[in-house]
Amino acid sequence: MKKLISLLALAGTMAAAQQNTAATPAAPAPAVKVTLTQDQIKTATVDGKAVDTVIANPKTVLPGDILREEVTVVNVSSKPVKSPVISVPVPKGTAYAGSATPGNDRWNTLYSIDNGKNYAATPMKTVTVTENGKSVTKQVAAATTEYTNVRWLIGQLGADETLKLSFRVRVN
């Protein structure tokens, strides 16, 4: 029987979600408000198609359950905000499970495997392998389950604009 575990500490993850904006001395109040929610995603097959059901703010989750980390980014000013950066850690007790809001012409989606020190579209790691009887060190793409943080670099957030960005994690 699988053991029930309490929902992951959303408050800790929410506190770690951050935005960086180009602040001006005349505007001491933050121009961007960031809110993080955590919902459970149940996928079922209906008429041969995968259909997701969202369970908002689940009280408990089981190992193997899928959660969606969703960041709502709101420009609370009447002026565009240039280059906000939204960074969210993969919560402890989970592993990145994909479905991050992909980059496009307005933002880039990046990942970290070292707790947010370095980011890349495809993080690389150094491994040592044996090839033809010799030890060889080379760079390989890290497995997505090794991702520790997700970051969106937004070119510009329009006046009063709201964006929703998300990714999924699997409960360990």
CATH topology heading: Immunoglobulin-like
* CATH architecture field: Sandwich
Question: What profile does the largest beta sheet have?
Answer: 5 strands, antiparallel
The level-1 CATH class:
Mainly Beta
Strand content: over 45%
Q: What number of domains?
A: 1
Which stretches are poorly predicted, pLDDT < 50 over at least 5 residues? 1-24
- Cα(first) to Cα(last) distance is 15 Å
Q: How many helical elements?
A: 1
Average pLDDT, all residues: 86
Describe this protein's structure.
The protein has a single domain, classed as Immunoglobulin-like, CATH 2.60.40. Helices cover 4% and strands 53% of the residues. It has one helix and 15 strands. A five-stranded antiparallel β-sheet has the order 4-3-6-15-9, with helices on one face. The chain is globular, with a radius of gyration of 19 Å. The model is unreliable at 1-24 (pLDDT under 50).
In short:
The protein has one helix and 15 strands. It has 172 residues and is mainly β. The chain has one domain: Immunoglobulin-like, CATH 2.60.40.
Topology, element by element:
Blueprint: E1 5-6, H1 10-16, E2 18-20, E3 32-46, E4 49-56, E5 60-61, E6 66-75, E7 81-82, E8 85-89, E9 94-98, E10 107-112, E11 124-131, E12 134-141, E13 149-154, E14 156-157, E15 162-171
Antiparallel strand pairs: 1-5, 2-8, 3-4, 3-6, 6-15, 7-14, 8-13, 9-15, 10-13, 11-12
Task: Please describe the structure with a list of short key phrases separated by commas or semicolons.
172 residues, mainly beta, Immunoglobulin-like, 4-stranded antiparallel β-sheet, disordered N terminus
